[in-house]
Amino acid sequence: MKSIYDQRYRWMMRLLVDARRNAGYTQARVARMVGWPRTMLSQLETCQRRLDILEACTLCRLYGIRLSRL
After folding, report:
1. Are 16 and 54 in contact (CB under 8 A)?
2. Angle at 27 between CA 17 and CA 16, to 5 degrees
3. pLDDT score of 5
4. Which residues contact 3 (CB under 8 A, 6 or more apart)?
5. Of 12, 22, 45, 66, which has fewest CB within 10 angstroms of its CB?
6. Is the pLDDT of residue 59 over 80?
7. pTM for the whole structure
8. Mean pLDDT, the chain, as a whole number?
9. pLDDT recorded at residue 47
10. Of 51 and 2, more confident
11. What is the C-alpha separation between 49 and 23, in angstroms, rounded?
12. With contact defined as beta carbons under 8 Å apart, do 16 and 49 qualify?
């Protein structure tokens, strides 16, 4: 089974979405800040694309949360 279908992965992505919203950022703003297409962030958040560790580090740093929280 692919990890994007695992409930733990979906839970982790919900944490990142909540962190983005709590930081007051839209998908478009985050995408501009990190240099990604907005569609890429959308696909990550909806578990259509798998998040790698470097992308996770980038988002955690931007949202002001520790990677270990995930």
Report:
1. no
2. 15
3. 78
4. 9, 50
5. 66
6. yes
7. 0.89
8. 94
9. 92
10. 51
11. 23
12. no
Contact criterion met (CB below 8 Å) for 9 and 24: no
Buried b (16+ CB within 10 A) or exposed e, 33-68: eeebeeeebeebbebeeebeeebbebbbebbebeee
At which residue do the structure tokens 């994007």 appear? 4
Taking 90 as the threshold, does the pLDDT of residue 70 lie above it? no
Mean pLDDT over residues 7-34, rounded? 96
Residue identified by tokens 């919900």 is 14
Check if the beta carbon of residue 7 is closer than 8 Å to that of residue 41. Answer: no
Under a CB-based contact definition with an 8 Å cutoff, are residues 12 and 47 in contact? Answer: no
Question: How many other CB atoms sit within 10 Å of the CB of residue 1?
Answer: 5
